[in-house]
Description:
Layout: H1 2-26, H2 29-46, H3 58-62, H4 65-111, H5 114-118, H6 124-144, H7 147-166, H8 168-214, H9 216-222, H10 225-276, H11 282-323, H12 331-334, H13 361-369, E1 382-383, E2 399-409, E3 419-427, E4 431-435, H14 442-450, E5 454-462, E6 467-471, H15 482-487, H16 494-503, H17 507-512, H18 530-543, E7 548-553, H19 555-558, H20 566-573, E8 579-584, E9 598-601
Parallel strand pairs: 4-8, 4-9, 6-7, 7-8
Antiparallel strand pairs: 1-6, 2-3, 2-5
Amino acid sequence: MWTVYLKVYGRRNFWAALIKLVGDCMGYIGPLAVGGITLYVQNITTGNEPKNIGFITFSNFFANGFVLVGVMFFAASVKFLCLQTHYHWVILESMHIRTAIQTMVYEKSLRLSTYATTGGMMTMGQITNHMSTDAMSLLFCFQMMHYCWSIPLQITITLVLLYQQLGVSALLGSAVFVVLLPFQMKIASLMSKLQKTTLHYSDTRLKLSNEMLQGIKLLKLYGWEELYCSAIEAVRTNELWAMFKINGNLVATIFITSTGPILVTLVSFGTYTLFTGKPLLPDVAFASLSFFNQLTIPLFLLPMTLAIMVNAVVSSNRLLNFFLAPEVETAATADVLREDTHCDGDENGQVPAVGFRQPSTSEKSSLLQNEDTSHKYGYGSVDRLSRSEVAPSPIPDDVAVKLVNASFTWDSDSNLPIISRANVEIPAGKLTMVVGQVGSGKSSLISAILGEMTTMSGSVMFGSKSSIAYAAQKAWLLNASLKDNIIFNNEFDNRRYRKVLKSCALEPDIEILPGGDQTEIGEKGINLSGGQKQRVSVGRAMYSNRDIIILYIIPEATVDPFKFSFYPRTIRNWNNLPSSAANTKGMSSFKEAALPAIRMMQPPIGSHMI
Length: 610
């Protein structure tokens, strides 16, 4: 991750670091000038002011107190301009990286595979923390990271200048920093461990809170409020205790860094006369005090910088694990074939390469920006092949999807295939139904076609018409009107829309809804029955004008029994039948369809089928 940060934001941060270096150097002119001004005033009061005879030399010119006052003003102005420019640039870059991280997390969450989200690898709490806490940690890191080299440099330069002023006593005073440094490093290590613990508790708390809000109706009906509240409060208590420990360590660090300059001043001034045998004169004392004051700000910022950098390292590691999580197979993830010696090849003894391809860039960008586009395919479905970028299909035009000796698994780290050596052809322009018992592999086959599973070997190829619409087992609805849920930001075609309503048996439902098809569907379709939600989901897939439509159908579970006959009617009434794959457990109602286009098949049960 840090290599990526350097490549993307390194140039602007390099110039910001250079400007900060100039500003920090200008900060040392003031303390040096204070000593000269003090000596100038002391010479005037004692009558030892040198008389100018002849030309004024460089040293005589800058020995004048009024000149030194002008130099201090110029140095302070340059320091102010440089540091403000530096802060402007680093704050701007920090906002850029926060926005970039949040965008990447959002895009990655859309591409996460089913295994990653349902297998416990990624939770909603983790994703929320990645977009909020981790992104803010990197924002603060970019604002403070230049102090990592600036603070040691300032301390070193200050100690060197103090050595010129005080001699050996300055080295003795600097030994105090050496003694305090191990304590600060130990505290920083503890803060790193506590930060990881705090983020873990935060992920758990957000996960539980999200589950409670998602199922609030069920909790109210069963009276489980206190049970869930007590679980969340227990996690929150642990989180607060970990945060209390972090703040305690931060207070200890601030105390150490605050007392450090005072101890250094006492030790240096106390031993000055002892080591040098000279009295502590005002010009040496005032200049040294100015340098000691220069140490205050770097030492005060040191614990904050350490804490922020620790948080940034922890957040970067968390983000790296998230970005490397399994995702839906595309060209970037499935072009590289992983050989499996236990799987047979094709007729030529070679295993074909995987044929998944990414959605078009314009479609993805439009989805992210929520723009109204006029491209052919609507949102919510996958365009496996871009017609302008891909060579002609290697399979016949009458075949929509073809699996050749394909083996799939859910866990990318597993060597055990869930579907083994599957050979499937789904013809174009016909309805193909996958029928089987529970656990026979119907859902896995659909997930493999959609790229949700990891391809271990073999080939998944699509025809020249390869855009896909998918109606899942659990209907997914927008918090919008029923009409908007069906159109789904596609171009409105009234004739097609009416045909979808009729074919999906939605006309009687629209008549009883208070606002017709403009009725606002609540969160997760709360004001619709299970069958109504499923028919709206199927209607969206049919309206999408995709070339391949995949329906996940469990009649007894998701659709009202007296309206289940709408499935065969939908297929019978739809002209220009696209390639369709239906995954179903019950077939009694489909017998009424009597469609010659229906082709039934059993799921590809392999030797290691779950």
